[in-house]
Design goal:
677 residues; alpha+beta; Rossmann fold; Jelly Rolls; seven-stranded antiparallel sheet; 9 helices; 35% strand
């Protein structure tokens, strides 16, 4: 892996180099914010530093800037807090004078990225300064709503340090950089421990998104390295748990946090020495697991296979089952040409392929290999059709590939011995590719609702603002509905619902889907929920739903009679062949390009409304009114002229709630919504 990075390091004195000599174990403490590890991973961190045979590396993923970027020194204050905590712990058990505040500050270049680094005895600290992602992972406006969570989920394609020192062009780029950093620092990759937030929300509920997704990235790395011991810590939730750290360890934990808070306050920020933060002192809850994969794992092993055909008892699955025997354990088909393929079940950057054919010392095979992301469009990556070298037990290895693929296909074109073709074993190697950027298809799409509270409009539930401070749709009393028009028909595979959260209240609801806005299908039943709402919301995956409209029926709130949606997300692929419907939703909406007014709006049922189409020319207009399910209420033709531009309608026949008014004029149809009280 040496080609993955370059590194610039200055050692200040041979005594420091001597201190590293003999360290045979490495502990990695991943701190999403510079003041996390002190509260949740102590006294483990202290005991690591205290061990002279242990190298301790603190990796601070984000700047913890709370959206302020470099316009505030908050990130510098939090960094200083972490550095003071490291110095405090390092000097508590030493004899004689301490080392002072000189921490050997350097800028290192790893995998092409400049990263700030400090060293102090056997401790090393890195600060990546990625943007704070906010508790729910939405990110902040100043940083373009970039967050580790949104990068991991493919919602944003890249992420930059807040000080613009570097940009990570993909999740793979960030993951590879962190892996290279670990390879630089680890004395022995066979003796490394990762200390991370627990990403199991049944064990570590309602944790910060930066904690969870930093952990996920590091666990991905652990699974590529293999054999990594992983300590997974409960974090925010420990404030509600019993103290389990006592005596000297408790004093060290409290002192470490005190040193941290002094760094914050000395830099003109809140010390955060308060009831909330102090409730985490003296509590360390974690579980331990071990990663089992390895970086050179065969990513084709036991993955789903298919073939153009097969001989009896020579199935396609026998070509990637880890059985290398040529005694009737291979895929076979007859006559050539035949193809065999594997679905890697995810998109990988493939760098090596090994093909082992049946061998007898004389026969040889000719073939080519193709790659595909979607299983439909294929790219040629290996041409072995001129081969005349006999097959062997070692097979043929094709390295230094630069291929991104989910599917790999071998086209077996020739066997010098007979007309049959055979693969004993097929291997592929590589890393997970950066996921395709997945868009929230509900974002800023037209919304409607059965009602809303003042200044809590339906549009606030899909505006990409995840703040619970007066930015959500609200209506009361339950039950109430909210819906979004995706403006096209999609195959929806995931929905995320984030309700208002305060740590105790829970909501119950169900979700429906419709193609035409009239006929609805139940797709999600969440009416038995009793788990409190959180900033992570509720995610419903593996859906198989075709819809243009999605409606959530909010049926219960355990706290009061109001219902609230902070943000609603939907994900899926647009259907290539549109579904034709007769719904009014097919009407062309050009309300922003003409001057059409309806007043009053909202209006009390039974009162008159006036429709004013401001046009300088004469013409005939058709006025049509529908309820929101598409049922026709009124159809009226009127003559529009320059002197008389207003059409009056009585609303006695209108439906209470949302109604749709269509105005057809000079070949164009204009749509306006009107709310009947």
């Amino acid at each position: 892996m040496k080609n993955l990075f370059s590194i610039i390091i200055t050692f200040l004195g041979c005594s420091y180099f001597f201190n590293l000599y003999g360290q045979d174990t490495t502990s990695i403490y991943v701190s999403p914010h510079p003041d996390d590890w002190q509260l949740f991973m102590n006294p483990n961190a202290y005991n690591s530093i205290k061990n002279p045979n242990e190298k301790v590396v603190f990796i601070h993923i984000t700047a913890g800037d709370s959206g302020t970027g470099i316009s505030s020194n908050k990130y510098l204050a939090r960094e200083e807090g972490s550095l003071r905590a490291i110095r405090f712990m390092s000097n508590t058990f030493t004899t004689g004078a301490g080392l002072g505040t000189n921490m050997n500050e350097t800028i290192v270049t790893i995998n092409g990225h400049n990263i700030l680094k400090y060293t102090y005895r056997n401790a090393t600290a890195y600060f990546l300064r990625l943007p704070d992602g906010s508790p729910n992972g939405s990110g902040y406006l100043q940083q373009g709503f970039r967050s580790v969570q949104r990068l991991y989920n493919g919602i944003v394609p890249d992420i930059s340090a807040i000080d613009t020192s570097t940009q990570y062009n993909s999740l793979t780029d960030l993951r590879n950089t962190l892996r290279s950093l670990i390879e630089v620092e680890a004395t022995d990759l066979n003796d490394v421990t990762f200390n991370l937030a627990d990403d199991d929300d049944t064990i570590n509920p309602a944790d910060h998104s930066d904690h969870i997704y930093s952990s996920k990235i590091m666990q991905d790395i652990a699974n590529t390295l293999g054999g990594i011991t992983i300590n997974l810590y409960s974090e925010y939730d420990t404030g509600l748990r019993a103290q389990n750290v006592f005596d000297h360890d408790y004093l060290v934990s409290a002192g470490t946090w005190g040193a941290t808070t002094s760094g914050l306050s000395d830099n003109l920020n809140s010390s955060t020495w308060d009831r909330t933060h102090n409730s985490w002192i003296g509590k360390q809850y974690y579980r331990t697991t071990v990663s089992t994969s390895h970086y050179n794992a065969n990513i084709a092993l036991n993955k789903p296979t298919s073939a153009s055909g097969n001989e009896l008892n020579s199935l396609s699955s026998e070509a990637n089952d880890n059985n290398y025997s040529v005694n009737d354990n291979y895929w076979a088909a007859n006559p050539y040409s035949q193809w065999w393929q594997v679905d890697l079940e995810d998109v990988y950057d493939v760098n090596k392929i090994v093909v082992i054919n049946y061998y007898d010392g004389s026969r040889y095979y000719q073939y080519d290999i193709q790659a595909s992301i979607d299983g439909i469009n294929w790219v040629d990556i290996i041409d072995f059709n001129n081969n005349i070298i006999p097959a062997s037990s070692q097979g043929n290895t094709f390295e230094s590939l630069d291929t991104t693929a989910r599917y790999l296909r071998v086209n077996m074109n020739y066997n010098s011995a007979n007309t049959g073709v055979h693969i004993v074993e097929f291997e592929a190697y590589g890393d997970l590719a950066n996921p395709t950027v997945v868009a929230n298809i509900a974002l800023n799409k037209p919304t409607s609702a059965s009602g809303n509270e003042l200044n809590s409009l339906s549009s606030e539930a899909n505006d990409n603002n995840y703040s619970v401070n007066d930015n959500y749709w609200a209506a009361n009393p339950y039950s109430q509905w909210w819906q979004v028009d995706l403006e096209d028909v999609y195959d929806v595979n995931k929905i995320v619902v984030i309700n208002y959260y305060d740590g105790s209240r829970y909501y119950q609801y169900d979700i429906q889907a419709s193609i035409d806005g009239t006929n609805w299908v139940d797709i999600i039943d969440f009416n038995n929920n009793t788990i409190p709402a959180s900033s992570q919301g509720n995610t419903f995956e593996s859906l198989d739903t075709t819809a243009r409209y999605l409606r959530i029926n909010m049926n219960y709130n355990s706290a009061n009679v109001g219902v609230h949606i902070v943000e609603f997300e939907a994900y899926g692929e647009k259907q290539s062949t549109p579904i034709v419907t007769t719904s009014i939703s097919n009407t062309k909406n050009i309300e922003n390009s003409v001057d059409l007014n309806i007043y009053p709006n909202p209006v009390t049922k039974g009162d008159d409304i006036e429709i004013d189409l401001d046009s300088p020319v004469n013409g005939t207009i058709l006025v049509e009114v529908y309820d929101f399910n598409g049922k026709s209420i009124i159809s009226k033709t009127s003559i529009q002229n320059k002197e008389t531009k207003i059409v009056s309608l009585n609303t006695s026949d209108f439906t209470t709630g949302l109604n749709v008014v269509n105005i057809t004029y000079r070949g164009e149809t204009i749509t306006k919504n009107i709310y009947i009280k």
